[in-house]
User: Fold VOC domain-containing protein from Marinicella litoralis.
Amino acid sequence: MANPIHFPFHLAIPVRNIAESKAFYIDTLGCQPGRSSDHWIDLDLYGHQLVCHLDQSLGDEGKVNLINNDVDDHGVPVPHFGVVLDMQRWQDLADKLKSAGIEFIIEPYIRFKDMPGEQATLFFLDPSGNALEFKAFKDISQLFNAN
Assistant:
């Protein structure tokens, strides 16, 4: 199979506070800021466009509603989003998040150990309750493998 062409994704998420979200995504995750207003901010998340939009219905302490689905004996929050990294960048991010005192929903670990699709994964919430997952595959060719 020829190498696929990759295009950056665009994802807009609700947040309860633009300044709080800006600080979290820039200071904690290392995103670069883009355009912004009082009601939204564009962020560069590993080359992808993440937009945080103010959702006043969340209130000052509100959180996005999530459900959990069982995957590999863990309650995976839905919806969630993130980026597939290489193993070194994933480990660097996991170490950075641990150092920053991030509370994980699912601690960094290896999922599907010794099986096709083996991957490193971790889950945490942003201040508004949006769930993020960052992962890395032992063999990136397994990303879409259905076996």
